[in-house]
């Protein structure tokens, strides 16, 4: 990381898409539509509510068109060393608050971890993987539909796509379990294959219903599918030109949003967790909830941040090795989540959240602010730091 602790250690390079923008300026991601053959049956609703997934299932039932060009432009700005998007005026990121508001998912409770397949060794009521699969779903997939511990989505869809009209309660439960496995394995935690579901989702989970998903408001959004490469360049330039005063730091504070959110989301015990600097866990995958770098998203003033936490060694873990119990092998990070309430930040909430003058000065020296060619930018680098930034507060206090 060098001698300067303020340095962002991975700004470019072959490991990041930002390193090839000049060579491939129209590079665009491709998305895959998933869970096409699993209809949301009304009889599944009680089980989805018990699992805290009902609102996510409703979002899945109405398909969203992904604006691949816009997402590509933001992927370019995602920095693994800070777990934030690097904008021209500072950083922003996806937080637990966004998960609660947009998807209606529980954000507090036990971590999503355990083992990948050896359930009978580590879980008190567990069974050997395929024995448990048959007990919970009533059928075993043929060998041609299985790759190690993952089952082809096409088999799931053909087998559990439509629950029989005259199904008894046990049959409905099996179909509901299959639907939940598909929902988790393809919508929340999809792998790069896009066509397989891992049996790690067999162990049942129980959460209470939480909130209303604001993401449903986007169900009518229909982005253009033409000339994606040129649209990537267009979005890249628009984001480059975006100013701090144009950025909505707190989109959930408006009355029209608050009136459609489930009251439980606004309980202090949930809202406090949004401001926790902690580990987010998905089996062997660890991400860092780096909200100390995005205080304006919670109404604060952003001072120069602490040095970035280097957890590159965790980014290389893919979870292979079903005989491992991740709460033990990655104990440090699981304990951080267990003590998440101790890591809640306290800071002054102001009327005009945003970056401080000291932050902008630091950011102009260390951040990678612009991605478009200088000929397209009109040289915004010459724009001085706004006066209002120097009048903002000094930043966070713990």
UniProtKB/TrEMBL annotation:
<dbReference type="Pfam" id="PF10536">
    <property type="entry name" value="PMD"/>
</dbReference>
<protein>
    <recommendedName>
        <fullName>Aminotransferase-like plant mobile domain-containing protein</fullName>
    </recommendedName>
</protein>
<dbReference type="InterPro" id="IPR019557">
    <property type="entry name" value="AminoTfrase-like_pln_mobile"/>
</dbReference>
<dbReference type="InterPro" id="IPR044824">
    <property type="entry name" value="MAIN-like"/>
</dbReference>
<dbReference type="GO" id="GO:0010073">
    <property type="term" value="P:meristem maintenance"/>
</dbReference>
<feature type="domain" description="Aminotransferase-like plant mobile">
    <location>
        <begin position="52"/>
        <end position="203"/>
    </location>
</feature>
<feature type="domain" description="Aminotransferase-like plant mobile">
    <location>
        <begin position="213"/>
        <end position="364"/>
    </location>
</feature>
